[in-house]
Automatic annotation (TrEMBL):
InterPro entries: MetI-like, MetI-like_sf
Keyword list, A-Z: Cell inner membrane, Cell membrane, Membrane, Transmembrane, Transmembrane helix, Transport
Ranges that cross the membrane: 38-64, 140-162, 194-213, 257-276, 288-310, 322-347, 379-397, 430-450
Protein name as catalogued: Amino acid ABC transporter permease
Localization per Swiss-Prot or TrEMBL: Cell inner membrane
Keyword Mitochondrion: no
PANTHER family named in the record: FE(3+)-TRANSPORT SYSTEM PERMEASE PROTEIN FBPB 2, INNER MEMBRANE ABC TRANSPORTER PERMEASE PROTEIN YDCV
Source species of the chain: Novipirellula rosea
Record's bilayer topology term: Multi-pass membrane protein
Length: 459
């Protein structure tokens, strides 16, 4: 859950938490002098820390998913003469290495195509360079140069992940859902293993959740008074309450636009991804093509996607000019490119979680349309809700794709945070980020409650 929360928090919020805690105007006393002495190295440390927290969460989820896909038959044989920890280390983790390697490649692709965090510290990625130099007048050379490295990462992910795991998927499908989990095959963990597990859990939760939230809370009420050559720092609860109370009114437009774009993008991306996942579950070759296409689309830099949508709506087609200037449709389409890939993989995982006997029975008795409406709609309710939520949250914080395509007057929380971090408005930035974090947590809680209630009704 700590890893899922870290991934759900947009990258710009991780940057805001770092700046509030250990940035140039952060609340930690040591960083007030450390930043000046480190110079440019402090910015490199900040970029590395932010990307590492986000990337570690991705690797953790990929490792968990890969180890959970190991067939029960292998675990049954291993449970005879080994402990759960030894089995995980010597059997499950080696079998899951393609997932771990693919997650590592994905982190490299995200770092190479991200522009919001590195831009705060004066570094330039290929996405940032494209946005600064070629956003107004892109040409074929700039597009090819910008996409060469991301496409290389995409090909590596397809080779490592889809080729290897795709071949195993047919043999393993549904086997790990044979009525019991891997934890049922072993004796209860020893006291030492429980201590190790709890220590790792506490460390991950502290690193990924507690520290960023604490940093933002501390920054809201943090104040620095200049008295001669001395800087006196103190924390005031009245200041924190005042900043938090003023944020909803001050940034009401940002919250409204972010909510609207997140909901529209989440629903649209899920509607696009659901048919692809449903057909792919039935036809393996089609599924492989969609898998490869979504990986490629996810690795394309956001500014390039945004400018492509802008160029499309500049075509002399009746109605395009009106849609571009008076609606949020271009923004939703641009944000849906990456969001639809996330929704697709969530729905794909949900379809492969359906037991093989249930799937074959529904396929024999019903057509594709009737099966989706009568069977899949109930079995996939939780996956659909998670897909809408996840796609909406990821899209609402996708600043690189939003900046080039957002119409005048439309400002999201991500784009406003991007501007505040550049201008040095630290207190407003912390209050804006905290309310956004609260909205994300509330959305996750509501969706979790609704999906559990829906699952109980189906059972």
């Amino acid at each position: 859950m700590a890893a899922i929360a870290a991934i759900a928090i947009p990258m710009i919020l991780h940057a805001a938490a770092w700046e509030a805690t250990a940035g140039k105007f952060g609340w930690l006393p040591l960083t007030q002098t450390a930043t000046r002495s480190w110079g440019g190295f402090a910015g490199l440390v900040a970029c590395g820390w932010i990307h590492s927290i986000f990337g570690a969460a991705i690797v953790a989820i990929a490792t968990w998913h890969g180890t959970s896909r190991v067939p029960v038959s292998i675990l049954e044989n291993a449970s005879i003469d080994t402990t759960p920890l030894r089995c995980w280390w010597t059997i499950q983790l080696p079998l899951a290495w393609p997932w771990v390697l693919a997650a590592t490649i994905l982190n490299a692709s995200l770092a190479a195509t991200e522009m919001t965090v590195v831009d705060l510290y004066g570094y330039r990625t290929i996405a940032d360079q494209f946005y600064l130099l070629y956003a107004v007048d892109p040409n074929l050379t700039s597009i090819a140069t910008t996409t060469a490295l991301p496409l290389g990462f995409a090909v590596a992910m397809i080779t490592v992940l889809l080729r290897r795991i795709g071949r195993r998927q047919t043999d393993y499908r549904g086997e790990h859902l044979a009525g019991h989990t891997s934890s049922d095959l072993f004796e209860r963990p020893s006291r030492g293993e429980w201590i190790v597990a709890c220590s790792i859990l506490a460390f991950c939760t502290l690193l990924m959740i507690v520290m960023p939230v604490t940093g933002l809370m501390a920054k809201v009420g943090h104040d620095v008074i200049i008295d001669g050559d001395q800087r006196i720092a103190h924390w005031s609860i009245s200041r924190a309450v005042h900043e938090l109370a003023a944020a909803p009114k001050t940034f009401s437009a940002e919250y409204q636009w972010t909510t609207m774009l997140g909901i529209c993008t989440g629903i649209f991306a899920t509607l696009v991804a659901w048919p692809l996942a449903a057909v792919g579950r039935q036809h393996s070759r089609f599924e492989f093509l969609v898998d490869a296409s979504t990986v490629i689309l996810f690795c394309i830099p956001g500014p390039l996607i945004g400018m492509l949508i802008v160029q499309i709506f500049q075509l002399p087609v009746p109605g395009f000019r009106f849609l571009y200037e008076m609606t949020i449709l271009p923004t939703v389409l641009a944000m849906s490119v990456r969001a639809s890939t996330i929704a697709y993989w969530i729905l794909r995982s949900g379809y492969h979680g359906i037991a093989e006997n249930v799937w074959l029975s529904a396929r024999l008795d019903l057509s594709l349309g009737r099966r989706v409406w009568q069977i899949d709609r109930r079995l996939m309710a939780r996956s659909v809700a998670i897909a809408i939520l996840t796609a909406g949250i990821i899209a609402s914080g996708d600043v690189p794709v939003t900046l080039p395509v957002a119409p005048p007057g439309v400002s999201t929380v991500g784009t406003r945070l991007f501007g505040l971090l550049h201008s040095g408005a630290r207190y407003q930035e912390a209050a804006l980020a905290l309310w956004y974090l609260g909205f994300i947590g509330l959305g996750i809680t509501l969706i979790h409650t609704l999906t559990r209630f829906r699952s109980a009704r189906i059972k």
